[in-house]
Amino acid sequence: MHQDPDEFALLAAQAEVHRAARLAPGSAASRAAQVVEIHGRPEERVFRAALDRVAVEADALRIRVADRDGTPRQRVAAASTVPLHLLDLRDHPDPLAAARAWTRADLEGAGAPGGAPPATRALVRLADDRYWWYQRVDRIAVDAYGLHLLGRRTAEVHTALAAGAEPPRTRFAPLREVVEEEARYLAGRQYVADREFWAARTADAPPPVNLSGGAPTGNSATTLHDHLDLPPVTFDRLEVAAAAGRATWVELVVAATALHVHRATGARDLVLGLPLTNRRRPAALHTPIAAVNVLPLHLTVRPQDAGAELLHRVALEVRSVRRHQRYPRAHLRRDLGPTRAAGPLAGPVVDVKPFGAALDFGPFAGTVRTLAAGPVQDMTIGVSSAPAGGLRLSVDARADRYDAAATARHRAGLAHLLDGYVELLLTDAQRPVGSLDPARGAVSSRTGSASRALAPPSPAPNRSPQPTA
User: Fold this and answer.
1) Burial code of 49-85, b = ≥16 C-beta within 10 A, e = fewer?
2) 36, 91, 267, 431: least surrounded by Cβ within 10 Å?
3) How far is 431 from 422, CA to CA, in rounded Å?
4) Pairing state between β 119-127 and 84-88
5) Is the CB of residue 441 less than 8 Å from the CB of residue 420?
6) What confidence tens digit (pLDDT) does each residue in 74-88 have?
7) Alpha helices in 163-278 (DSSP H)
8) H helix intervals, 353-403
9) b/e map 425-454, b = 16+ CB within 10 Å
10) Mind giving me the DSSP string for 274-333?
């Protein structure tokens, strides 16, 4: 087969999205989208120049994917192929409703993943001092962390251009360089070590349980969403409680999620899905790409576990999986064989995004809001920075397995359980997790400790931790 020198292979994560899209062509689950609400009046000419510059720097925004004798290949098109829509809705009777309708139509009507174009952008003027910057990208091109990198770089370039300065040099690497680096990993010793790790880990793994009890039927593009913004002081308490147990706050959230799934299902041996950024080398770490790898996290939860003991066990498992996060999930399915690979690799997904929800465009503040984050197999439990500071706890559930009330109950139960677990760790970390009140998540009065409500809002500053994967 003659190969075009401008074409090259897909990353493993891209190839997985490509396979899923062929099974469900046109599915909105294959796209990611967000809106950045800008409070102020940025100069449109400068903003457009910033967007155009980032489009030149980010290869992933311009990829085209085509099958060559059954093998998908990609190339990077010219920078001028990334569309930008300028919409002025100030005269519309309901600008916000019109903006929502436009973004929804774009998200639902986008073409096949990897086609032309893989991304679209819009600058929507809602009022004299209020803008939306919308971007929708195929997940074959960019994952959630990639969207974060694009937003951060755009804000950086805009700030410099608005001040009449030259922007700092980009840290984005060419996409082909990242693909070549992954190819070296797949042919190297670390890949062999990772394969041996996962072979041992999955040999006797229990079948995953989910919160709906439904049979696995693939992913769903139709989901229900519920969220709660926790105040900054709650994040402070999370950090203190985790540090006391020599863990991170992300690991504490995973432990609380495992405890919630155990309580809801009665299962003690759990397999949760853990999305990892899969960026172990500098080129991948600083470049908008599709690299996320959702891997199974094997956990045991018992009512007699001390709070500190459960947290320690979860932290060790998370860190062990992180060390082997580059092993492609598709290869893990292949290794399991056709019978086991046909089912889900994990139950509920716990997706912690420890990067900020705020951007600065010079004197103007931008608030990031996620519109679409990809498919949901059963339920995804998310924790991210809240727009106003603190943390946002969210639940996305398949609409064919849950209703709005069930989704809200899981979100409320998680919030109370997380608060109760933190209180247990701060007051008596050796107390068993079974002493937590299942109705409220707080420490049961039967144990002699008082329950407590979520802490009130605090003026503590917003936190924007760095990626932990």
Assistant:
1) ebbbbbbebbbbbbbbbeeeeeebbbbbbebeebeee
2) 91
3) 12
4) parallel
5) yes
6) 999 887 777 889 999
7) 175-186, 189-202, 232-244, 249-265
8) none
9) beebbebbbbbbbeebbbbbeeeebebeeb
10) EEE----SHHHHTS-----EEEEEEEE--TT-BHHHHHHHHHHHHHHHHHTTTS-HHHHH
Please name the amino acid found at residue 300.
T
Contact by Cβ (8 Å): 426, 454? no
How far apart (Å, rounded) are the C-alpha atoms in residues 301 and 255? 9
- Residue 180 per-residue DSSP state: H
Tokens of 68: 């060559």
Place of tokens 């299962």: 267
Strand-strand pairing, 119-127 and 130-138? antiparallel
pLDDT band at 204 (very low <50, low <70, confident <90, very high): confident
β 349-353/358-361 pair status: unpaired
Look at residues 215, 212, 334, 201 and name the one whose alpha carbon lies nearest to residue 274.
Answer: 201
Q: Is residue 112 predicted with pLDDT exceeding 80?
A: no
On whether the CB atoms of residues 181 and 9 are closer than 8 A, the answer is no
Q: What are 355's two structure tokens?
A: 């990067």
- Cβ neighbours of residue 71 closer than 8 Å, sequence gap 6 or more: none
- How far lies 78's CA from each of 3, 57, 135, 288, in Å? 20, 11, 19, 17
With b meaning 16 or more CB within 10 Å and e meaning fewer, what string describes 206-221? eebbbbbeeeeeebbb
pTM of the model: 0.87
What lies within 8 Å, CB to CB, of 101 at 6+ separation is: none
- Spatial neighbors of 84 by CB under 8 A, at least 6 apart, are 48, 51, 52, 121, 122, 123
Closest CA to 318 of 373, 362, 256: 256
Distance of CA 94 to the CA centre of its chain: 31
Beta strand 71-76 pairing with 269-276: unpaired
Q: Answer yes or no: is pLDDT of 394 > 90.
A: yes
